[in-house]
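Agenda item 2: fructose -6-phosphate complex prediction
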Amino acid sequence: MRVDVDEEGRWAEAVAERFCARLRQRPRLRVCLPTGSTPRGLYAAIAERVAGGQASLAEAEVLLLDEFGGLAPGDPARCATMLARDLLDRLDTPPAAVHRLDPDADDLDAECARYHRVVADGGLDLCLLGIGANGHVGLNEPGSPANAPTRQVALAAATIGAASRYGDGHAAPTWGLTLGMAEILEAREVWLLVSGAHKAAVLAEALEGPVTAALPASLLRSHGRLRVLADEPAAEGLSASLRSRAGDDETVDGGPRHGG
Ligand code: F6R
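Presented output:
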């Protein structure tokens, strides 16, 4: 695990630069992306770089991390709607190279199995994640073990409350579909994005508390190429020994997926 704390107040820009460097190393990056509040500034910064010709996702494949159920297609709280608005509509990625979980499928188990195959066929080079206040990653709520597959999940009360902020005031979703902890941990590289003082306590618990399914983000510590990208307020609760300054970057190639 490596923890990079942005001390210059330009967290989103710094993460965008790192992301675009990955794209230059591997133009055909297969990347899994979250939605929510955390990555919005990052996505704006990536979109600016794409518009300016400094980066391109024309050859990349984008896989959405999760999706809420029970909302109409196009609902502003749907992850697909958020990601389209914040990033995809401003990119050069062909629509056929964007993959999502469909919560409107008749058979949700079959839909999750289909998505598992999409992910497994080529794997993920990079999985970006946010963290919920309850320690969830994707919609892997507390109680999700490391081998939890891509599946339909009931949302925790805290997640329902948080998701209500994404919509336009109508009923919040109570369930969703998510990439499992198993598929997340199989990604070649995982970046945990954490921004804001309201995430400081859960981040400290995830990185320095027990590794437990009760806090799914803590399970990421078993991944050999986990990079935590935090802004200063989010990193407030971390011990000094855990923080490191941003330095030489590794490439996406080589190295074990697990065990560090
Ligand atoms: C969203 C997702 C969630 C969020 C998490 C943090 O696709 O997977 O796990 O990353 O709930 O949400 P924000 O960033 O809104 O605090």
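Discussion summary: The CA atoms of residues 136 and 238 lie 19 Å apart.
Owner for follow-up: CH.
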